[in-house]
Amino acid sequence: MRRIRRNGKLSPPCTWKYEGGTGQMGEDVIVIKVSGGLGNQMQQYALYRKFKEMGREVYMDLTWFSPENQRKAGARRGLELFFYPQVHFEEEPKEVLRFFSQKRGNKAERILRRWFAPLTGRLPLTARPEEDYFFTEKEMYHPEIFSFQTKELDGFFHCQKYTEDIRERLLHDFSFPPHSDAGQEKKVREQEVRMGEENSIALHIRGGDYLQDKANLALFGGIATKSYYRGALRYLKERMPEAKIYLFTNDEAYAGQMLEGETYTVVRGNAGRDALQDIRLMRACRADLCANSTFSIWGGRLNDRSDRILVRPPRMKNTQRVPASLMHEYWKGWVLVNEEGIEV
């Protein structure tokens, strides 16, 4: 068991309290940094749950949501995972947080690396290179993360392959609470029934922050295009006679331009803590036509219908370009339609 040295003295083994008991920091600890909106938080939780199912010691780092960090954030967010009543996780204990904080540019460790290694030919355990403790996602899929030891993981890890083998557990954990408004809950239930009986298509268009923020536009733009939606709808209508389109969007004006000439019903009334009710309704539809957004893709991933048809773009963001053959491996069961409206 590793102990942290402070002021020349070894501290006691790290201990903390959490729901269900107390624990100590072991030799192999994984920390997942949580950030972003609901869909991203769900993916980070799913990865946490995968490590748990593997029997690993894993925690969630929630420091991104602190008031200080939110003041620096481009788009301010709150922790929304707790809106799902079956979601439970262990937050990173203070001692573990302190341990990783000390590994970032620690002066003493830099000295040890400089002098100890040349003299002995090896690094002391406490002087592992800084990058050994921290990992930042770059690709769509990083299978190596499951062999990491004592590592902080930073990224959204948006790939179905990470957690496809624990899907039943995720269906349980992401079970939906009733709408906070009793009248709206009645409406949501009626919509669920209707969507379940029709050849329904849950179609998500994300405008707003994807268009207004230059960094987001560079990262996410040009993927879920007008041609993408036309091609995807053509694919679905060929397989679903008399399809009924339900539009989920944060930008109705932009969505109207994208769907010019189409007949559709706009789903409204689910905002704030009730935004997850949109995911609840998306999963009720026979088909999910997703944007390059984790929000709607979770609607597809949680869709438990035997006749479901799931459609998504072949890439999530412009910095992650993956060959179609690999995307089909990473996203089994999905139809991939590119920005030109062509199935790939």
Nutshell version of this structure?
With 344 residues, the chain is of the alpha/beta class. The protein has 14 helices and 14 strands. Strands 11-10-9-12-13-14 form a six-stranded parallel sheet, with helices on both faces. A four-stranded parallel sheet has the order 6-5-8-7, covered by helices on one side.
How would you characterize the overall build of this protein?
The chain is α/β, with parallel strands linked by helices. The protein folds into two domains: about 25-165, no CATH class; about 180-335, Rossmann fold. It has 14 helices and 14 strands. It has a six-stranded parallel β-sheet with strand order 11-10-9-12-13-14, sandwiched between helices. Strand 13 (about 310), helix 14 (about 325-330) and strand 14 (about 335) form a beta-alpha-beta unit. Mean pLDDT is about 90; it is low at about 1-25.
Which features does this protein show?
344 residues; Rossmann fold; globular; disordered N terminus; 14 helices; alpha/beta; 4-stranded parallel beta sheet; 2 domains
Order of helices and strands: EEEEEHEHHHEEHHHEHHHEHEHEHEHE
Give the tally of β-strands.
Answer: 14
Low-pLDDT sequence parts: 1-23
Q: What's the end-to-end separation, in Å?
A: 50 Å
**Chain-averaged pLDDT:** 89
Radius of gyration: 23 Å
Q: What's the CATH class label of the largest domain?
A: Alpha Beta
CATH architectural designation of the largest domain: 3-Layer(aba) Sandwich
Domain module tally: 2
Strand ordering within the main sheet = 11-10-9-12-13-14
Structural class, by secondary structure, is: alpha/beta
State the helicity in percent bands. Answer: 25-40%
Strand content is 15-25%
Shape: globular
CATH topology of the largest domain: Rossmann fold
Count of helices? 14
The major beta sheet can be summarized as: 6 strands, parallel
